[in-house]
Structures are given as C-alpha cells and as structure tokens.
C-alpha cells in the first residue's frame, strides 16, 4: 500500500473552509473601518428603528452638532439621539474628504412629515462615529427663488 502525502479530503475541505472564513472575516473587518460602510450601517439601523444598534456606531464622547452641540457619553445616549431624529432618510451619496466624509440624505416621513435633502459631515475613527455634524442647507442657485 502506498501512503498518500496529501491530507484526507475531509481535512483538506476543513482547511479550505477555515481559509475562506479568515478571508471573509478580514474583509468584514475592513468594511467596518470604511467610513461609508459605517455611515450606511448607522442609517440602516435608524431606518429600521433599531436605535440600540444605531447607538453602537458611535464612539464614546462623540460630538453631535445639529441645532445645538452635544457629546454623547456612550451607546445609550447615542441611541436616544438616533431615535430622536424626526425623519427617516436614504443615503444618496457619500463624499470622502481628507479627514471626514459628507453624506447626503433624501429625507422621507418618519415621526413627522419630511421631505428634501440634508447633509451631515461624519468623522469615523476605528470604525466608530466620532463626529456627526448636520450642515446648513445650501442656498438656492442665484436667480432661482423658492
């Protein structure tokens, strides 16, 4: 009988599966660090009404600037903030800048009737939102009136 130098098929299959899981896990870790993926993940959680998950996207002591500026000490405060947003929104674009990203949202009805667009500047560090700043609406192009 000649001994095989190859591992049995079941062992080779297990090794291939383990290697595939490592690759997939590595890609998921990179996605969690990607600012656009973090922004879209937070937005999906808010739209689903999963405010606990939405709060988990924020870093401790994250800065939020909407009408006023505040700091959220942890996920529970960030969840309350996320749940307080009056509108639901769809991300229509994310523009990466040097140290931040600006996301444009198409607003839709949530707790109150909503329409139009909003822009928020996000800073993402180590997969967490450290800054959430709603930008002032852009003025209409010159010559156009509302």
Please, could you describe this protein's structure?
The chain has 146 residues and is an alpha+beta fold. The chain has a single domain, classed as Nuclear Transport Factor 2, Chain: A. Helix content is 37%, strand content 31%. It is built from four helices and six strands. Strands 2-1-6-5-4-3 form a six-stranded mixed sheet. A hairpin with a 2-residue loop joins strand 5 and strand 6. The N and C termini lie far apart (88 Å).
Summarize the helix and strand pattern as letters: HHHEEHEEEE
Please name the CATH topology. Answer: Nuclear Transport Factor 2, Chain: A
Structural class: alpha+beta
Regarding CATH, which class? Alpha Beta
As laid out across the biggest beta sheet, the strand order is 2-1-6-5-4-3
Radius of gyration: 22 Å
Topology:
Layout: H1 9-33, H2 35-47, H3 51-56, E1 58-65, E2 69-72, H4 75-84, E3 88-96, E4 101-108, E5 117-125, E6 128-134
Parallel strand pairs: 1-6
Antiparallel strand pairs: 1-2, 3-4, 4-5, 5-6
Give keywords:
146 residues; alpha+beta; Nuclear Transport Factor 2, Chain: A; six-stranded mixed sheet; 4 helices; 6 strands; 37% helix
Give a concise summary.
This protein is an alpha+beta fold.
């Amino acid at each position: 009988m000649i001994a095989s130098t190859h591992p049995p098929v079941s062992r080779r299959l297990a090794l291939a599966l383990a290697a595939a899981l490592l690759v997939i896990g590595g890609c998921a870790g990179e996605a969690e660090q990607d600012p656009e993926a973090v922004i879209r993940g937070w937005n999906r959680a808010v739209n689903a009404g999963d405010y606990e998950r939405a709060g988990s996207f924020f870093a401790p002591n994250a800065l939020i600037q909407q009408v006023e500026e505040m700091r959220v000490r942890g996920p529970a405060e960030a969840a309350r903030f996320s749940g307080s947003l009056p509108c639901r929104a769809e991300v229509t674009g994310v523009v990466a800048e040097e140290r931040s990203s600006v996301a444009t949202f198409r607003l839709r009805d949530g707790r109150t009737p909503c329409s139009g667009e909003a822009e928020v500047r996000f800073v993402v560090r180590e997969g967490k939102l450290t800054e959430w700043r709603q930008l002032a609406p852009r003025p209409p192009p010159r010559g156009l009136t509302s």
